[in-house]
Amino acid sequence: MASELNCMIVDDDPIFRQYISKQIKETNGLKLVTEAENAAKALDLLEENEVDIIFLDVQMPEMTGIELTQRLNNGYEVILVTANDSYAVDAFEQKVTDYLVKPFEYERFVQAINKAQRNIEAFRKKKNIIEHIFIKSDGKIVHLRLQDILFVEALADYVVINTEAKKYIVHHTMKGVEKKLPVHRFVRVHRSFIVNIEKIDYIEDLTVHIKVKSIPIGASYKETLYGTMNFL
Fold this sequence. Notes:
Layout: E1 5-10, H1 14-25, E2 30-36, H2 39-48, E3 53-57, H3 65-71, E4 77-82, H4 88-93, E5 98-101, H5 106-127, E6 132-137, E7 140-145, E8 149-155, E9 158-163, E10 167-170, H6 174-180, E11 186-190, E12 193-196, E13 202-203, E14 207-210, E15 213-216, H7 222-227
Parallel strand pairs: 1-2, 1-3, 3-4, 4-5
Antiparallel strand pairs: 6-7, 8-9, 8-12, 9-10, 11-12, 13-14, 14-15
């Protein structure tokens, strides 16, 4: 695989979590970054971790895997797993990557991973050439050019997309927004801020200055920020 893919397991059965964990560790290019025993915890962990592939059990108490997929932002490759195939139609209506029936052989696991990898590579190529996005704000679908975005700021369960002309409040997560924006143009500099690299005026004392806004640089984001910059 060209790059390492971060995986998450969501299953209320600890034995099966261990089973998938073993297959992930045996596969080059995969890394298990986190796991959860229920959907609610999974949503919290997705805010804290960079995840590419989610192995998601269908039958869980309180919130099923199908219900969780309806709440996920785009950008994740979801591989549903279940003890029977009666949920197959519902699964593919949610446009999941693949559907595995327990127990499955390692060869079938690899097939699902290969499919996820192809989707991820296609998504990343597309993301790096886009010049605009559409957002839902104030009951309207708004067209935004990427070149007009100054920075994105977290606001509780929302994000604020700042342009020179206007601010747009969008019901989204920072992780979700970060996945939508091309990495060669936007970089996360703090838990609460994503900036347009082209709009940076200067950096001083671990602070990014864009127009009249001063944005702090988080310690864990400093290296990533400097890695995107073209120094003389």
